[in-house]
Design a protein that fits this description.
heterodimer, A: about 300 residues, mainly alpha, MetI-like fold, B: about 325 residues, globular
Chain lengths: ~300, ~325
């Protein structure tokens, strides 16, 4: 209670301290902040990453209890080649790509086509359709009965089945992002093309699609991230039938955890994370700005 | 699909956007030709077949005896629900899932907001730090889980570090407590996704008008008062988005829990998806379906208010 008056009437206070905000922002905090930021990075991100990188280079015995010490002899070559075979990395990489690329392209094309219509036609029915279409953003997919359905369709355990499931799961995300974006595109741009005699397909391809590039690249990043790293749905749909990187990580780890093969598990973690990390290093500025603008706009 | 082509164009409040005023009113015929409903067909076919149909199946097969032990499937009514209730699995899993989701939503947002406030200024150090904090987001959650399983072992790196600082051996089984492991796993989940929340909060902070902050500064408001009375309320859209996605996303969580504890110790971290995964693996398909339906119903109940909020937010912007 004693401090209350000074905070309630800070401007009246005659002491030189009444503007801690000002001093904070331009004073010592300005010099301390970079140190705090770097310490936070080192403690929260640096230490775990360091452990991954050095443990992947250790022998089985040294990796038994992962810690911060350097390996006595570096075994990257041996560990990577062992895990390369045990985890069938080339097949898994190919399997992950085989599923991700068609799923992402398919969901973007079909999703933006539908979004254009949903954004432009205004009726009660369209409002219902839109609500249905975006409900999948939050509703969890029925993972068990998807297996049954795919069996009935003859797609159980196939890449096509998995692609369909991912498209169904992320269609909502695409429609939500793209519909919101199309509504901000002035309709006059389309009218001009239409007066020139362009049909709907051409208007969509030549006018709308090029304008969608920023929002579609954000959606691409997010969906690639989810599909590339997904293991739960892959388990149910293609587990044991097809290799993907996360599925094989699970295999390597399930076999390795009992044997305490942390060096192999961590080597696999590195191999698996590298493709996305490389893409991220080169495109981080665009990725970060894409995600932030997509989420807040 | 044919029914909607006959629906007359009518601006519905929920769909009207700021651009509408500038647009000229159009007649229905022209709109139908320019925006053919056929363009909706492929997307809705995929959605219907791979998303809505399995969801409808969920309601049907939860009432059957579907399992790997018998080739015939027959109707058993609410037998599965009764079994899950009487074994206690239903409410235990539900309680664990909701606790986990709430913990993740709180932790991820507190970390994300703190990081955003720490790294707000556009300096080289901060840009570097933001990139570093985003690395866990692009890593596989399964991989993150395994990494932390190794770090948090009783003889793992964290205890070694604590031991070195404290000067005596520390052997806390971080993932071995039936009471606290759920919190530890939620912390790992929050660690993995805090970079994403941070980015969204950073974007939210950027949208705040600099003049307002300057005015507050001239009025002598402290940094804390500025945050509490101006910046925090203005972050509302970012908070809504972050809390909603973290809460509903972690209700559907699996990878981190599976990789760190697999649902243990003593099933104390067995969230719904772990239960579904385990019972499916045991061939108890109908039980797994029933739990999947429970998850669907719980998320749907929570989601409808969330969708409303998201759509409102979209209208404002």
């Amino acid at each position: 209670m004693t401090g209350a008056p000074s905070t309630a009437f800070p401007a009246v206070s005659p002491r030189p301290k009444p503007r801690p905000g000002t001093t904070d922002r331009h004073g010592p905090w300005r010099r301390v902040q970079p140190v705090v930021a770097l310490l936070a990075v080192a403690a929260l991100i640096g230490v775990p990453l360091w452990i991954v990188v050095i443990t992947a280079g250790k022998s089985q015995g040294e990796a038994l209890n992962p810690d911060l010490t350097l390996p006595s002899t570096w075994q990257y070559g041996a560990n990577f080649s062992e895990v390369w075979q045990q985890g069938r990395v080339p097949m898994a990489f190919f399997g992950s790509l085989l599923i991700m690329v068609p799923a992402v392209i398919g969901v973007l094309v079909l999703g933006s086509l539908a979004s254009w219509i949903l954004a432009r036609r205004k009726s009660r029915v369209m409002a219902v359709f839109y609500a249905l279409a975006i409900s999948g953003i939050v509703l969890p997919p029925a993972v068990v009965t998807i297996v049954l359905l795919l069996r009935q369709l003859g797609l159980a355990g196939t890449a096509i089945g998995m692609i369909g499931v991912y498209m169904g799961m992320y269609m909502s995300t695409v429609i939500f992002f793209v519909t919101g974006f199309v509504r901000t595109v002035p309709i006059e741009l389309e009218e001009a093309a239409r007066i020139d005699g362009a049909g709907p397909v051409r208007v969509f391809r030549t006018v709308i699609l090029p304008l969608l590039v920023p929002v579609l690249s954000t959606a691409t990043i997010l969906i690639c991230l989810y599909v590339w790293n997904d293991v739960f749905y892959a388990f149910f749909v293609v587990g044991g039938r097809l290799d993907t990187l996360p599925l094989n990580l699970f295999q390597v780890a399930s076999a390795g955890a009992y044997l305490n093969n942390w060096h192999l598990i961590f080597a696999y973690v590195i191999l698996m994370s590298l493709p996305l990390l490389i893409v991220f290093t080169f495109a981080q500025r665009r990725i970060i700005s894409g995600i932030t603008s997509g989420a807040v706009k | 699909m044919s029914t909607q082509t006959r629906t007359p164009r009518r601006p519905v409040g929920i769909l009207s956007r700021r651009g509408d005023a500038a647009r000229t009113p159009r007649v229905g015929v022209r709109q139908r030709g320019a925006y053919p409903a056929a363009f909706l067909v492929p997307a809705f076919a995929v959605l219907g077949l791979f998303f809505f149909l399995p969801t409808i199946y969920n309601f049907v097969y939860a009432l059957t005896s579907w399992s790997s032990f018998s080739s015939s499937i027959h109707f058993v009514g609410l037998q599965n629900v009764e079994d899950l209730v009487s074994s206690g699995a239903l409410f235990t899993s539900l309680r664990i899932t909701v606790t986990y989701a709430v913990l993740v939503a709180i932790l991820q947002n507190v970390f994300g907001l703190l990081l955003a406030l720490l790294l707000e200024r556009d300096t080289r150090v901060n840009r570097f730090a933001r990139v570093m904090f985003f690395i866990p987001v692009i890593m596989s959650a399964l991989a993150v889980g395994y990494v932390f399983q190794a770090i948090l072992k009783p003889t793992g790196a964290l205890n070694t570090i604590f031991g070195a600082v404290l000067g005596h051996a520390v052997t806390v089984p971080w993932l071995g407590s039936t009471a606290w492991t759920l919190v530890v796993v939620a912390l790992i989940h929050a660690w993995k996704w805090m970079g994403l929340s941070m980015l969204i909060y950073l974007a939210g902070l950027k949208t705040i008008n600099e003049d307002v902050l300057e005015a507050a500064r001239l009025d002598g408001a402290s940094a804390w008062a500025t945050f509490r009375d101006i910046r925090f309320p203005l972050l509302a859209p970012a908070i809504t988005f972050n809390v909603a996605t973290a809460l509903l996303g972690s209700m559907n969580g699996f990878d981190v829990v599976q990789a760190t504890t697999g649902g243990g110790p003593a099933r104390s971290t067995e969230v719904l998806n772990i239960f579904i995964f385990r019972t499916f693996g045991q061939g108890l398909f109908a039980q797994a379906t029933t739990m999947s339906l429970v998850l669907f119903l719980v998320v749907a109940t929570l989601a409808f208010p969330v969708i409303r909020v998201l759509r409102k937010r979209e209208e404002v912007l």
